[in-house]
Amino acid sequence: MRFATHGDPGWSRFDTTTRTVRVFDAPESHEVADPRADELRALRRAKLTSSAPV
Predict the structure, then answer these.
(1) Cα-Cα-Cα-Cα dihedral of 3, 9, 15, 19, to 10°?
(2) What is the pLDDT of residues 1-42, one digit of tens each?
(3) Contact (CB, 8 A) for 39 and 47
(4) What burial letters (b/e) apply to 24-50, b meaning 16+ CB within 10 Å?
(5) pLDDT for 53 beyond 70
(6) 48 vs 18, which has greater pLDDT?
């Protein structure tokens, strides 16, 4: 509720350098840096090597 009352969610802001996100998981939520880095790299490679029109 801190975010609703004070505007501070209690975790780091997202930025495109570290891509740190909050994972809401049991028993505790936590921060993870760039959790889908491998998928993003694969998509970028596929886009660069694709001959299909965009």
Answers:
(1) -140
(2) 677 788 888 888 889 899 999 898 878 889 999 999 999 889
(3) no
(4) eeeeeeeeeeeeeeeeeeeeeeeeeee
(5) no
(6) 18
CA 23 to chain centroid: 9
What pLDDT is stored for residue 39 in this prediction? 93
Q: What share of the chain is helix, strand, coil (3-state, %, to 5)?
A: 35, 15, 50
Token pair for 12 = 């780091």
Q: Which two tokens stand for residue 15?
A: 């930025």
Helix/strand number for the chain, H first, E second? 2, 2
Residue 44 DSSP code: H
The token pair at 30 is: 């936590």
